[in-house]
Specification:
Oligomer: heterodimer
Order of helices and strands of chain B: HHHHHHEEEEEEEEEEE
Shape of chain A: globular
Shape of chain B: extended
Order of helices and strands of chain A: HHHHHHH
Strand content of chain A: under 5%
Helix content of chain A: over 70%
Distance between the termini of chain A: 47 Å
Largest sheet of chain A: none
Structural class of chain A: mainly alpha
Distance between the termini of chain B: 23 Å
Number of helices of chain A: 7
Structural class of chain B: alpha+beta
Number of strands of chain B: 11
Strand content of chain B: 25-35%
Helix content of chain B: 25-40%
Number of strands of chain A: 0
Chain lengths: 163, 243
């Protein structure tokens, strides 16, 4: 497997997925890089789509582990603030930043598995692949996804009204 | 529109495998076809919305960092055989390896596995979990779980999905209230659809609706005293019995 080709093909979508999943760009980069590192280190090979599925699955599991640690740390920092956190993208226009914040708020209202399922679906994965990652039967994904989508849209509307 | 139709419509939209009868039922229904079109519009809206969540990407820097870490790792380790497996085979090998290692006395894997398998519900719950809204998620341990739903309208369908997770989710109409303590989850439901996502491999599971037992599961044995609308290994649809 060619390092450059695989990296160029997989990294952008992978880091984007992790960013949407967590709202934390540093964490997203960290997890995406760790997933690719494991891919190359273990010599995992397969079709482009197979490699992509392996990477997203690995990244989802890493996010589950690390996100919880970060959330705990964040809670501690909120109780005992050390320094103000900087904005993620200071050059972003106010309007774009507000839209992004609404999307983030809406994603955060979803349960962890619903968020994973929604974002994997909108990253182009099949029901079977999503089912394997979130741990339910593939035949259940339609119902669960439908509910997650409706909840996400409702949360977007509510976030817009609150803004 | 029933819960199963809701799932069928989204599955049809996404080109997933759909039961032929379910597909025909949707295609022969004007309301179903309108739901399908709306599901398509919703997918477009969500894709558009997610595009507004930008992620600045420095590909060259990331690539350099991973390459450097990989080189450092390879210098420190002996080369390993390459793997070319499907995900299913890879997962099976990992499970077999873990099972074999955990069978050895004094195996560190055994203690690790035991630690990982400690049921979440064995953690002392100091106070009941109380939630209002449309969903609650609770841990399920080896002692199992009792789900008691009240206020569910007669004739309403309850969808039960089995999951490999060791948590259970109860989902109902917005405004429902939920409590959980000592392995018992109660919900006062304001309306349907009601969805229960229950662990398939934790302790015994029991579901009571409006005071009547409608489901019990012990290991792989599932009993449905009030019958079901639909039943498969992965999903059960129950109709709320008459009072």
């Amino acid at each position: 497997m060619d390092f450059d080709t695989t990296f160029d093909q997989q990294y952008p979508d992978l880091v984007r997925y992790c960013h949407r999943l967590t709202g934390d760009r540093d964490l997203a980069e960290d997890v995406a890089q760790e997933s690719l590192l494991r891919l190359f280190d273990r010599g995992v090979e397969g079709s482009e789509h197979g490699v992509r599925a392996w990477l997203f699955k690995t990244a989802t599991h890493l996010v589950r582990d690390r996100y919880r640690v970060r959330q705990n740390r964040k809670r501690l920092l909120e109780v005992n603030p050390v320094a103000p956190s900087g904005t993620e993208a200071p050059d972003m226009s106010l309007e774009r930043q507000e839209t992004r914040d609404r999307v983030r708020a809406a994603l955060d209202t979803l349960a962890e598995r619903d968020r994973e399922m929604l974002l994997m679906r909108y990253s182009g994965f099949s029901y079977r692949e999503i089912a394997e990652v979130i741990g339910v039967a593939a035949t259940s994904i339609g119902t669960l996804l439908s509910r997650a989508e409706k909840r996400f849209e409702r949360a977007m509307t509510e976030a817009g009204e609150a803004a | 529109m029933t819960r199963s139709d809701e799932g069928t419509i989204v599955a049809m939209r996404d080109g997933a495998l759909v039961d032929a009868d379910d597909r025909m039922r949707v295609e022969n229904s004007p309301a179903g076809m309108e739901e399908l079109r709306e599901a398509g519009r919703r997918a477009d809206r969500i894709a558009d919305t997610l595009a507004h969540y930008p992620t600045p990407i420095d590909l060259d820097r990331a690539k350099a960092e991973v390459r450097a870490r990989l080189d450092a790792q390879r210098r420190a380790e002996r080369p390993r055989p390459r793997i070319h497996l499907t995900l299913g085979k890879a997962a099976s090998l990992v499970l077999l390896g873990a099972a074999a290692a955990s069978a050895l006395p004094n195996s560190p894997v055994r203690s690790w596995v035991e630690g990982r398998l400690t049921p979440a519900a064995s953690v002392e719950v100091a106070a009941p979990i109380v939630a209002a809204g449309e969903e609650i998620e609770v841990p399920v341990g080896t002692d199992g779980l009792v789900v008691a739903l009240r206020g569910v309208p007669e004739g309403e369908e309850i969808e039960v999905l089995w999951t490999v997770e060791r948590t259970a989710r109860i989902s109902a109409a917005d405004g429902s209230s939920f409590t959980f303590a000592a392995g018992r989850a109660e919900a006062i439901v304001t309306g349907g659809p009601v969805l229960l996502v229950l662990p398939q491999s934790a302790g015994p599971i029991r579901v009571d609706v409006n005071g009547r037992r409608v489901l019990s599961r012990q290991a792989s044995d599932v009993e449905l005293p009030e019958g079901s609308v639909e039943e498969s290994a992965e999903r059960i649809i129950l109709a709320v019995p008459q009072h």
